[in-house]
Structure formats: structure tokens, C-alpha cells
Amino acid sequence: MSDNSLPKLSRILIILVCILQGFLTYITDHNDGSLLSQRQSTILYWQALSLVLPLVFAFTIVRLKDRFLWQSLTICLVVVLLTASWVNWNVEEVESINQYDGIVVPYLCSLGILMFIALPWLQTRIKNKQWNVSYATIYDHLCINAITVIFILLLVVFFWGILWLCVELFKQLDIHFFRHLFFRNNLFIYTINGFLIGVGIRTCRLQTHLMKAVRNLLTIMVKGLLPLLSFVALIFMATLPFVGLEALSGTWSPSALLITMIGLLIIATNIVYKSGLKVKPYPAPVRMMVNASLLVLPLYAGLALYAISIRVNEYGWTPVRVWGYLAIIASAFFSCGYAIAVVRSQRSWLHPLGMINRILLPGCVALIILVNTPLIDPYRISVDDQMNRYLAGKVTADRLDLPLLRFDNGKRGQEALITLYQNTEFVSNTQRKQRLEKIMSENNRWEVHPDIEELKQIHPKFMSDFVQQKLILAKSTLMPEESWWKMLQNNQQVDIDLCLRDSDVCIVNSLDLNQDGIYEYLLCHIEQGSDISCHVFAKQREEWRNIGHAYFPPSTVNVTYFEHALREGNVKTKLKQWHDAEVGNEAIKIYYPDME
């Protein structure tokens, strides 16, 4: 059943504007030789405006001559220009697309979240000609918009899935025309995606009754899942006192999981709340369990704050931690608000929830705007904190995270590196100065020695010598034979280039893993903040092969002790407790996942 209140011209404009959005996105991403490439500072404005304005127009338009529509677009234009101006200042002097994307992508994502939260108010402003409307109206628009986004994603996935099937079918006939047309033509990809977005928005805006039916169906599903989610939240909080907070502080980053639990409970509660406002949605015992889970939400927020505070105290602020901290603060306000709603509910279930959401959702909009302004600039906070930690002696010069300053903090990070280069104490150490110069000359954090590829192709002997100089042989480990070094350079399973970076350590140990009297080699790669990888090499039929490997996060071991033990050659074999089996003459390898 359709809602014909949307004029025919508006339906056409929705699709045309979304196609235009796809075309503009294509221009900003592929602008070699164009006017935009000559004026780099304008690209971010194009990216932000082409993301926000077409979608706001498509979601809110009713009649083209409606002055409230153009007022809403003007508000969006002002917000985008103000925030983009500050973010653009942060990327003024970056030298590579990786550094640019590291700042611009979070900004564009924050704009998307901002737009999703603010859209219901813009839609009600245009439809009802006023800002002050009931929470039920805001909730209806939030739900319909969320369903629209899901529908668009499904439409895009199915469309491109069908095109992929077409390409694969014709590939069997050795016809590759469709592959180049569909998946190698960026203009086609961007404009078709814009068209699909326009079709999805237009369809969902017309089929209002169908959208409400889908919303009701989702409400029934969530209504059944909310008690289970509440039960999980309660048993986790009940178990924690017996385990202790050390269990949380020992993991890599539990904050994201804790925030996810808060977000799921808040979303699920809102969906059930809308249907259960007049009639209590559950029997008394189940309702008490749901209420109890909402009452412990502030504890979840407090634990998330505790977990991220540990990381900040150990390693200082980074842009990611600033974003995470703000998300935790927002979740803490929601958690406390929902706990208050449980306490103050008397006649009807969670009666104050609508008023709480009407206050906190605009607060989230304000917070997202502020984080993209000088007031709460994550890059200023990150760089200032890292430099202050160094100047205060909390972190030594050798442990200062130079890649973080270079690649994750835009213009401020570049200025911090220049300050360090002008610091006579910092550059007094020759190795430290060379490391700083190398970082400043690189365009991304994964870049290796600039002459590596040339050495591989032109001077293989020099390359072999360079690799031997960079790898560390543990004590009592004999120099491997020349064939082992050659194998290592050409091995597809081991990225030896990682060992050539100044920030990484690769250590070689020799040990007899199969007790046959012949030594194998264990090569372990240690990178700060990343997984530790170890590879085992054995000589089989006069040829060296990679026969085993292990990967594990640094949170599972004491990295400093682990590296020291490797250097000292403190490595020995350990027999497995559970053996394989042999049936007749047939060997059966058994994997014991619960025993290892």
C-alpha cells in the first residue's frame, strides 16, 4: 500500500539527486588532472557536502517549494562548512592518501551518524512545521530511517551479487567484457550505487504502511530477545566480583564490548518501550529482570571508562582513544538516564524514557559537532598528550610513538616531529635521529626501506646481506647456511619486509623440534601493538620449507620478557600432552581444541 502524499516531481528528484551524489563522489575520488586536484583544499568540502546534502534532501523532501526544506538544508550546509573547515586545517600539510584518509574517514563517518540522529527532527520540522514534537513521532522516523538503510544495503548486495553471477557465467565462455563494464568502470559503480540508494529511499518513503509492518515485525523479534540480552548482562555483572577487575585490565580492549552491550540494551529497550508504553510488555518476573539490567548499565559504562583509562595511563591519548572516550561518556549519560527511568516509573513501564531520549539525542548531535571543532579536537589532545608525556619523562625518547605522530594526527603530528627534530637532546642519539628522519620521509606506516624493491631486483647479493644485518641471531644460534637466507627472501608465507622496518624486531633461534638431531630454525617477528608471529623452518630433501607457524596477540605474553628470552636463546621444545593416533598403518592427526 502506497502513500501518495509524495508528489511525482519529488519522487523523480530523489533518484536524480542520489545519482548526482554518486557522480560527485566519483569526481572527488578520481580527480587526476581536474580542477579539484589543482585545489586540494576543496576536496574535503566536496566530499562532506556530497555526502550530507543529497541524502538529507532525499529523506526530507515533500514539496520542492517548501521553505522548511531549504531551511533544513541551509542548517546542514552551515554545520558541514564549519566542521569541514577545521578538519581541512588538520590535513593541510599531509603528504599521502593514507594520512589524509586517517583523518577524513572518521570525520565522514561522524557526519553520517550526525545525519542519522538529526534527520527525525528535520523530517518532523518539514512535515509538522515545528521543532517541538512528541517522542513517538521522533521514534517513528528513527525506525523508518533505520529500516530504509537496511533495505538499501540489501538492495545493493543483491544487485551486485547478480552482476557478479553474470560476470562469472560469461567468464566460463572466456568473455570478459562484463567484468570490465561492471567491476572495472568506477563511473558505472558510483552512479549505479547512487541510483540504488535513490530507489531504496523512494521505495521506503512511498511504502509507509509496509515500513510500519516491518517495524512491527522487528518489534516482536526484539521483544523476545530483550530478556535474553538482559540475562546475559546480569550474569556477567554477577560473575565479575568473583573474578576481579584484573581480568578486564588484562585484556586488550574490553571497552568496545562493554559499549556494545550498552548500545544493544538501549536500542532493544527503546523498540520494546514503544510497543509497551500503555501495556506492560512482560510478566512481572521478566520485567523485573529487564529493569535490573537497565539499573546495572551505569556499571557497564563505569567499567568501560576504567578499561580505557588504563590504556590512556599506560600509553597516552590517541585519536582512537579520544573517540572511544567520548562514546563512553555518551553511553554513560544514556545508562544513567535509563536507570533513572526505571526508578521513576510508577504507573507505566519506563514512562520518562521519551523525555530522556529527547534530551540526550540532541546532546549526541552537539557532541559530534564539537569533536570536529577546536573545542574537542582529538588530534590536538593526542599530540599534546604524547609530547607532554615525553617532556615529563613518562615515556623515554626511544619509546615515543613516532608512527602515531606521523600517520595518525595530520598537521599537528607533522609539527610535533619537526619540534623533535629541532630538539638537540632528542637527536643527540644517532640511531634515534636516523629513525626520526626515516619516519618523516615515509608516506605510510607500512613502508619499508625505499631501496628494498630495487635491491631485490638488481642486487640480490646486497639484499641478502641487508636481511642478514637486520635479523637478530639469538645467543648460541649458529649462522644459517646461505640456502636458508635465499629461501627466506622468496618465501610467500613470510613477509620478510616487515623485519626490515626499524620499529620491528625479528629474532632467529635454532632448536631441534622433532628430536632427530638436526636443528630447525624459529623466526619470531615482534611488532609493537600488533600480533606476534613465529615461523618454523626445516630442511626437507635438501630444501628449506616453512613447516609451522604461530600467531598470538601481545596481550597474552609479557612482550619485553618474551623478546629478552628469544635474544638469550631461552627457547626449548615442549612435548604435547595429547598425541596423534595410528589406525593400522594409517596416521591420524587429531586436533584437541579444548585441551590446548
TrEMBL record:
Give me the segments passing through the membrane: 12-28, 43-62, 69-91, 103-122, 142-167, 187-204, 225-244, 256-276, 288-310, 322-343, 355-376
Name-wise, this protein is DUF4153 domain-containing protein
Q: Which organism is it from?
A: Limnobaculum eriocheiris
Q: Which UniProt keywords apply?
A: Membrane, Transmembrane, Transmembrane helix
The source's domain of life comes to Bacteria
